[in-house]
Design a protein that fits this description.
Layout: E1 5-6, H1 9-21, H2 25-38, E2 46-47, H3 49-54, H4 57-71, H5 75-88, E3 98-99, H6 100-104, H7 108-119, E4 123-126, E5 130-133, H8 138-141, H9 143-171, H10 182-187, H11 198-228, H12 234-281, H13 285-320, H14 324-340, H15 344-357, H16 362-367, E6 371-378, E7 383-392, E8 395-398, E9 402-406, E10 409-414, E11 417-424, E12 431-437, E13 442-448, E14 459-462, E15 465-469, H17 475-480, E16 487-491, E17 494-497, H18 503-511, H19 515-521, E18 524-525, E19 534-539, E20 542-549, E21 552-557, E22 561-563, E23 571-573, H20 584-596, E24 603-605, H21 608-616, E25 672-676, E26 684-687, E27 715-716, E28 719-721
Parallel strand pairs: 1-2, 6-13, 25-27
Antiparallel strand pairs: 3-5, 4-5, 6-10, 7-8, 7-9, 7-11, 11-12, 14-17, 15-16, 17-28, 18-19, 19-20, 20-21, 22-23, 24-28, 25-26
Length: about 725
Amino acid sequence: MKGVRFESEELVRSLAEATASAQGGLPLLQFMLADVWESRDRERGVITAAGIEAVGSVGGALSRHADIVLSGLLPHEREAAQRILLRLATPERTRSRHPREELTSGEPAAESALEALVRGRLLALREGNFIELAHEALLTAWATLARWIEEQSGQEAVRQRVEAAAAEWTRAGGERETLWGTRRLSEARVLDRRLLSPAARKFLLECGRTVRTALWRRRAIPIVLLVLLVTGFFAWRVARRREVDRDVAQRLAAADATLGQAKAQEAVLAAARLDSFREFDAGRKTSGEEAWQRALGLRARSELAFAAAAEKFEDALVVGGNREDVRGAFADFLAARAAHEQRPAEREELLKRLRLYDSSGDRLRAFRAGAMLALATSPSGARVRIAPVVVSDGRRKPGPMRDLGMTPVRIDHLDPGTYQLWIARDGRPAVELPIQLDAGEKRQLELEIPAEGAVRDGFAYVPPGRALFGSSADEGVRQFFNAAPLHPIETRGFLIARRETTWAEYIDYLKALPPAEQKRRTPHVGGTGLTGQLDLKKAGDSWKLAIENGSRMQVLREGDKLHLPREKRADQDWLRLPVAGVSFRDARAYAAWLSRTGRVPGARLCSEMEWERTARGADDREFPEGDVLHPADANFDATYGKKPNAYGPDEVGSHPGSRSPFGVDDMAGNVWEWVESSLVPGEAVARGGSAYATRDTCRSVNRELPEPAFRANVLGIRICASLPNGTSRKGGGG
C-alpha cells in the first residue's frame, strides 16, 4: 500500500525463520519492523537488510530499545523503573497487572519513570487504570529485565511469606499473636522493602516495633529493680552496672571483629578493582572485563560484610546508645564505610548519618578537609589564575577567578572539587589545565610550558596529567556504551586540534597525492549509507561534492553553499564543514602525511584516552560542559527539530556549548571522530556522536567500533600531535 518492498525474498524468509525460532517471536517482529520502517531507503522504497541489522534484527531490537529508554532516565528514576518492572514481572517470567496507584504510591520519581516507560512502549495502560508489561517478549528478550528477575528470585519466597503474613494480620484486625518474632523477622532483612506492598511494609514495621518493645521491657526490668532498691541494693546496682559494661564491651568487640573482616574484604575488592583497571589500561580489554566481573562479585561480599558489622554496632547501640564510647565506635564504623564507598549518593547518605554520631566533628571534617596545591613551572615566573568549577542546572563551568601570582605558587586551603587553571608566561603559549582535588590531598605540579611555536595555530595543548576514563553507569548501560569502568588514568602531554578536519584541509591533502593514491583516499559513501550518499570528485582544477541530505541530493562546487531547510545555519560553506566519508585507514594516512610534510610535526590520530581526557577535563562529566546536552549546545538529532531534511553537518566551531574544558570545539555531535583504541591495540574506535545521533549516543564515554575500512557521511577526523621530546613527559598530576 505504501509502495515499499523488502530488499529480497531471502530477507523475508530469514525474518520469518527468526520469528518462528524466537520465544515471543511475533511481538519482537512487530516491534523491530516499527523501528526499521523509519530507516527504510526512502528514495528506492526498500527495507534493507542493513537497516534491519542496524536496529538489532528480530532478537535484539526490543532489548536495544528498552535499554535506551532506561538510559534516558535520571538515576533515581531508573531505580523507580526497576521497582515497577519487577512488580509487573513474576519469577515464573509471566506478566502481572497492578493498579497505577499501587506501583507509584504518588512518588514523583516513580510517576516520572512510569510515564517514560509508557511513552517508550515498555508498559501499557489498561482499562481501569491498570498497568502491565506491553510485551510478553520483554520477559525473555530483554536481557536487563531478565537479569533483574534472576537477582530477585532468591528473595521471592521470603517476599511471598511476608505478603501472606501481612494479609493474615490484616484479616485478624492487627492481633499481636499474628505478628512475627525476632527469628522470622530476621529473614525479611534481605528484602528491598520498596518492592513490598504498603500492607506488608506496615506489617514489618509493627513486627519490629513489637520486638523492640519486648526487648526493652526485658532489659528495663533490672533497671527498674535497681531504682526501687537503690538504697538497699547499692552494691548490687554496681555489680549490674559492671555486667552491662561487660555486655557492651563484648558487643563492641564482636562488632570491631566483624568490621575488621569487612575491611579485609574491602581490601581484596580494592586490589581486584586495580587489577581490572591495569588490564584495561594495558590494552587487554577482555581480561579487564573478566577481572571487573570478579570485582563485582567481591563488591557484593564486601557489602554483606559491612552490613553484618552495621548490625552488630547497632546491637551495641541498643544497649549502650547513651554512652559516648559506643556512639564514637559507631561513628568510626560509619567513617570507615564512607571511606570505602565508591558510589557518590550512598557515600553522602553515610556522611549524613555520621553527622548524628560524630560529636567532635573530627571524622566528618576529614571528609571535607581542604586540599593543598603547589605549582611550579619551567620556566618559572608564569602568572597563574584559578577558578572553582561550579555546577548549575547540570552544567559544570568555571566560577569566580582568583589570581595566584607568579610561579612557583602554593595555596593551602582549597575545598575538594574541580578547578580550572590558567597559566601564562610572556613569549610562550598559554596553558589551560582542569584539575580535581580530593579532600586532604596535597598536590604538587611541575609543568613545563611549551616553547614559542611548539603549539601550532588551531591546536590546544593538553599537559601531562590525571583524568577519569570510562563510565560509572549501571553495568547494562556501561556495556551498551562499550566503555571501561570509571577509573583514573594518566596521559602524557599532547596537542589536539581545536576543530575537526575540514573539507578544505583534506582536499589539500588529496591534491598532494599521486593519482592512484588520490583515488583510493577520496571520500565516497554509496547509496546503502543510512544517512545518505556522499561523493567527492575532481572538476578540472577544482573539486565538487555531491552530498545527500534526507531525500535531496546537492552537488556543490568550490565557493558554493550547502543549503538545508532550517531556521539557523541554513547556508554554509561546505569547505568549512568537517570532512566525512573517510575510513580509519584514510584518517591514519592523512595524519601521517601531515607529519611527514612538516605541516603538523608529530601528527597522528588521538588515542581514545587522550580524546576522552580532552572532552571531560578532570572530572566525570557526561558531556563537554557538564551532565546535560541541550539542542543549542551541539549538532545532534534534536538540534534542528529532528526534521529529516534538516539533518547535516555544521561548519566547525559553530557550537560553543560543545567546547571542552581545554577549549576544543565540537567534542559532541557534528561528526564521529576516528581515534586509536586504548583498550584493544590497533582497533578502530569512533567517538563523539554526529548530527544524526541521539543525545545519549553523544556522551563522552560512548565508544563505537566500526570496521577500519568503513565509511559513512557521519565519520570524520580530528588530529592529535606529539610534542617534541621532553615536553610531553614533564608536568603531570593534572
